[in-house]
User: Fold Adenosine deaminase from [Clostridium] ultunense Esp.
Amino acid sequence: MINILKELPKIELHCHLDGSVRPETMFELLSEKEELSYKGFKEFEALVKVKDECNSLVEYLKKFKYPLKIMQSQENIERITYELLEDLNMQNVKYVEIRFAPFLHTGEGLTFDEVVKSVLRGMERAKKDFGIISNAILICMRDESVEESIKVVEYGAKYIGKGVVAVDLAGNEKDFPPELHEEAFKLAFQKGYNITIHAGETGIEENIPKSIELLHAQRIGHGIAAAKDPKIMEMLKEKNIFLEMCPISNLQTKAVESIEDYPIRNFMEKWLKITVNTDNTTVSNTSLEKEYNFLIKKFNFNIEDILELIDNSIEAAFLQESERIYLRKTIEDELITMELI
Ligand SMILES: [Zn+2]
Assistant:
């Protein structure tokens, strides 16, 4: 089974660029920038990854201060994007949507366009060198003003169809509910972006219907709190909204009290469309292979269940129909060769 998981053609739809920087690269680039107080790489690595669990989402989010320090130059952002795709290609990920908040990278003088173009260059170069296909999702931060979110939507619109496929809303869900950013997402919808929203990650179930009805979400990041309300689950099913679940990250951030409470089986039994993703490969110290393995061990998933997740991801991907057909064919051909279908 382990070997099959390694070789499976995979899709990643929820992956934050700043949470997925190679630790070695972070260490190297940080040492160039400042005097490091850590004894060596091992000690540093422990700081940037969550070991087994942490106490809360707040503690989890502290890990992001290190990558954000070095993701302030075009060269570094391009390199980090390229390396992530190189790593994912080694794991036979065929298609990935990488998300980032452009304005978290403008603190040392970069412009919005320079940030976005650096990511797109890294993606382009990885496609040429490894064949891995990727698209970008621009994140609006909940704790910023709606004006800032409108800027993300407006400035980013010229990249739609040129590597950018969607916008997202992320950050502190408890203090900054979806409706605060309604105007920005209305504009995003008019401009033709796809829309995915982080909602119901930290227990606030009403953020899920609000994200769908007010912010036009086609996909929901995490959505775990939907399990609390049958009406919300019914709505997700009826409107064909895909959930981007990230099991290992969700347990680390205490999105659920214990593994037994994680509702992935519950959702599948209710015929909700589930995709499984990593969230942050470095911070969560995970990979799609580890996520699948976790589901097999803890929730008795079999290979058919995993193939269903991958099939859902093909359907949920923010791709043009011709691109989706191509991706489906690429994946099916490999599964046939592996004698899995
Ligand atoms: Zn996320």
The pocket of zinc ion is lined by residues 14, 16, 170, 198, 221, 279 (CB under 6 Å).
